[in-house]
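Why should sequence recovery work at all? Because a backbone constrains its sequence more than one might expect. Tight turns favour small or flexible residues, buried strands favour hydrophobic ones, and helices have their own preferences. The token representation captures these environments compactly. In the example below, the structure is given first.
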């Protein structure tokens, strides 16, 4: 990819050689010939830059021997360049050990070893299905998706275009729903589905349960980290980011553009309004409505309140000693009075 093409892609101001070919991205201190790197601030510039091109902030004023591209957000521009240089391209072949039902409509470019694809399933062009993936019946997977090894996609799941499921993802398993009588737990029907919209990425070993009677839905552009549990009938909006080890209980609603840190626990029927940011290890009680803003702690609370209470907790030992001293003085005064 030529430097001028990169400048056009990121809509940046190019200074230097426009025709140099870039083949890789790298760290600024390690980048060499035909490689591109980025810095977010001028003070982060390495002493000896050997990269062929450097993406820099708009106010960058130093002269370098390499080409530079000035942009508003260097990290974002760098990510876009990397996305082009490292775009996944699956080989166009099917392994002979794969099983594909006769009535399945599979246009996938690549199907790995020991893949199983069930009856009436449809898979679009450009999609890659890696080794040991199991796809049930009446599943729909769109175009240009990547399903990495050992994923399991249960019956009747719908997955859009340009989605990525990393190794070990399970989509469409039964939700955890039971009704108790006097003697035992009776399983509530788990016969709904999962709908994953376009441009969703799901991290390794994440589980997305099917709806009990309706659907579990993941909105377009949402990014989910490894080891996340999403329960039945959860509705996640567009462009939501969810970090690792988060657990989301049934029938929770997460609106567009929320950010959820790692190890967050969300109780059932909670609602996170658009723009809510939840700090790591926070706990959200069942039915709680969390509005836009930054929240932290268990039970979850606005960040400013969390900081204030946390400061008090750190001083509890001092408060205890002060109260003890006051009690002793009070006892002495009572003895003098009596």
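From this structural description, the recovered sequence reads:
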């Amino acid at each position: 990819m030529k430097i001028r093409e990169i400048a056009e892609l990121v809509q940046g101001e190019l200074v230097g050689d426009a025709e140099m070919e870039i083949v890789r991205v790298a760290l600024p201190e390690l980048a060499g010939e035909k490689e591109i790197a980025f810095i977010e601030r001028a003070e982060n510039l390495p002493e000896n830059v050997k990269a062929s091109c450097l993406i820099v902030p708009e106010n960058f004023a130093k002269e370098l021997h390499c080409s530079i591209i000035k942009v508003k957000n260097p990290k974002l521009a760098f990510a876009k360049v990397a996305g082009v240089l490292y775009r996944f391209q699956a080989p166009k072949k099917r392994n002979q050990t794969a099983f594909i039902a006769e009535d399945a409509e599979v246009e996938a470019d690549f199907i790995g070893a020991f893949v199983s694809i069930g009856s009436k399933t449809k898979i679009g062009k450009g999609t890659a299905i890696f080794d040991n993936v199991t796809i049930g019946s009446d599943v729909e997977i769109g175009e240009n998706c990547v399903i990495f090894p050992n994923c399991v996609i249960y019956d009747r799941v719908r997955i859009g275009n340009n989605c990525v499921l990393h190794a070990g993802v399970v989509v469409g398993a039964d939700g955890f729903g039971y009704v108790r009588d006097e003697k035992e737990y009776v399983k509530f029907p788990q016969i709904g589905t999962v709908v994953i919209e376009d441009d969703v990425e799901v991290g390794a070993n994440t589980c997305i349960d099917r709806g009990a009677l309706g659907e579990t839905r993941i909105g377009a552009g949402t990014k989910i980290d490894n080891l996340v549990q999403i329960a039945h009938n959860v509705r996640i909006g567009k462009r939501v980011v969810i970090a690792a080890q988060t657990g989301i209980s049934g029938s929770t609603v997460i609106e567009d553009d929320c950010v959820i840190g790692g190890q967050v626990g969300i109780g059932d029927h909670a609602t996170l309004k658009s723009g809510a940011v939840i700090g790591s290890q926070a706990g959200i009680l069942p039915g709680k409505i969390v509005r836009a803003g930054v929240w932290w702690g268990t039970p979850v609370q606005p960040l400013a309140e969390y900081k204030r209470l946390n400061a008090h907790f750190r001083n509890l030992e001092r408060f205890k000693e002060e109260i003890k001293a006051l009690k002793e003085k009070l006892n002495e005064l009572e003895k003098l009075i009596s």
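A few observations help interpret the result. The chain has a mean pLDDT of 95.
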